Amino acid sequence: MNRSGDWLAQARRDLEHARQSIGLGHFEWACFAAQQAAEKAAKALHLHLGTEAWGHSVFELLDGLPPDRRPSNSLLDLARMLDRHYIPPRYPNAHPSGPPSQFYTRGDAEQGVAGAEAVVSYCERQVLPAG
Question: Which of 27, 33, 64, 69 has its Cβ near the most Cβ atoms within 10 Å?
């Protein structure tokens, strides 16, 4: 059974969580939720294609797609940015001192959400039938 639709549904929900976190001023959580949305969308695309999807790196997941499905370099750059939001938003010991909330800004969160929107959109276009 192909569960790519389930992974895309959760990616969209994670993306909505990221947007809501911005409104709450929880910028670190917005960044992490954005990374999660992109990761799940990339895994949905792998499931759809029947290819291997392992790990948490959005960049590696997208870069590992078959050549005819590999996204543009600009989207891969967004994936690299999102990968930087996998661990540091959640763990105080990822920073020299202080909680992660001290290190994330609205701009970081907005950039993360925009990057995740681009990745999720790309993956949806590859998985869902047109029109």
Answer: 33
